[in-house]
Amino acid sequence: MDDFPSGRASFDPPAEAAERVWRQVADLLRDERERIAGRDVSAPVDVAGLRAAIGAYDFARPVAPREAVGAVAELLRAATVHTTHPRYFGLFNPTPTLMGVVGETLAAAFNPQLAAWSHAPAAAEIEAHLLRFLGGRLGYPRRPAPPAPGRSTRCTASPASARTTASACTWTPPTVAPRPCRTGCGPRWTASAAPTRSRWTRTSG
């Protein structure tokens, strides 16, 4: 019998109930790692069956965590290209490492908001440090970290913020002349729009 609470109480369940969920997830991931080599890298998908299985959850009643976790894992096993498979040789989708999974778990649990430095100083600085390191490996000049912005709001390297800014700068009529666009941090770029494409040109550091 699963005594995991429902409703608002499920947001902060008792320690024992939470531990059971984590134990199930850990066991599931260990089993998946041990068995993945025996499965297909990718299998044909029964779209109708997949949608029926997902549609069976109509949100009319609570679902026990054990049932939900097990059902989602089964769906992912059956309808996923398994980049974790030893015979998967994809170029851009490497197998996740254990510490990568742990890192994603920490990010989900702490939920740092990277849209502004003041909301998540530690996460923003970790991200910036990593980007400087990777940039150096790719041949970009090493630059010292900028002065701490204090409590003021400052754009970070958040992918969502960057995509939004890029869209705002490039979605312009073809009659608009190219103009510099500052994303809030980093180099200055010039965005120019054409009827079928947009182009970015780096103009300064």
Q: Which range does the strand content fall in?
A: 5-15%
Q: Count of DSSP helices?
A: 6
Question: How many β-strand runs?
Answer: 3
- Estimate the helix proportion, in percent: 40-55%
Main sheet specs: 3 strands, antiparallel
Structural class of the helix and strand makeup? mainly alpha
Coarse morphology: extended
* N-end to C-end Cα span: 61 Å
Q: What is the radius of gyration?
A: 23 Å
**Strand order, sheet with most strands:** 1-2-3
Q: Low-confidence parts, pLDDT < 50 over ≥5 residues?
A: 173-177, 193-198
Mean pLDDT: 80
Compressed to H and E, one letter per element, the order equals: HHHHHHEEE
Tags for this model:
6 helices, 3-stranded antiparallel beta sheet, single chain, 205 residues, mainly alpha
Structure notes:
The protein has 205 residues and is mostly helical. It has 6 helices and 3 strands, in the order ααααααβββ. It has a 3-stranded antiparallel sheet with strand order 1-2-3, with helices on one face. β1 and β2 form a beta hairpin. α1 runs parallel beside α3. The protein is extended and about 55 Å long.
Outline of the structure:
The chain is built from 6 helices and 3 strands; from the N terminus they run ααααααβββ. It is mainly alpha-helical and 205 residues long.
